[in-house]
Amino acid sequence: MSDRRDSMQTDAATANASTTAAALDARYGRTPGDRARLKVLLWSLGSFFVLVFAAWVIWGGLLAPAAQLDARDIAHTIVSDQEVEVTYQLTIDPGTRSYCALQAQDEQHSIIGWKVVEIPASSTRTRQFTDSVRTVDLATTGLIYRCWQA
After folding, report:
1. Which residue range is the domain that position 8 belongs to?
2. Known Pfam families for this protein (predicted)?
């Protein structure tokens, strides 16, 4: 009889422990249904991010128009204490008028000269120019600051 009573107590303790464990699992979201919902949520979020990234790449990279204007510094020549010549190349669609801002800098990279140059329209896509920039001190370099279409 004592064995039977011990067996019943053991069964009751096991049932009580499994009921407690099940209650704790349900309380803290560790049930099989919760795991399945978490997997679905994570896969959905991952798919959403992949879709948004792919749309961004297509919209920003593949569908964007090609660069219509490209300016490159080629050289500079220090003419005197008050002048520097800037040689640059401009690539722009034929028939388009543009402007370029040129600058001269000293050893501390301070801007000591500035000039905006009008580039007339042409039938040639890529052209090279040399323009003088007046300075207030001895320049160490001459550069293109920026070019834009008119």
Report:
1. 2-62
2. DUF4307
- Distance, in Å, from the CA atom of 33 to the CA atom of 3, rounded to the nearest integer, reads 39
Q: Give percent above pLDDT 70 in the chain.
A: 86
For residues 145 and 104, is the Cβ–Cβ distance under 8 A? no
Q: Read off the CATH number of the domain in which 122 is found.
A: 2.60.40
The pLDDT assigned to 65 comes to 66
50 and 25, same domain (yes or no):
yes
pTM over 0.70: no
Contacts of 71 (CB under 8 A, 6+ apart): 88, 89, 90, 91, 100, 144, 146, 147
Amino acid at 63: L
Report how far residue 112's alpha carbon sits from residue 81's, in angstroms, rounded to the nearest whole number.
11
Q: Which of helix, strand or coil describes residue 149?
A: strand
- CA distance to 37, 50, 64, per residue, from 125 (Å): 59, 39, 20
103, pLDDT greater than 80: yes
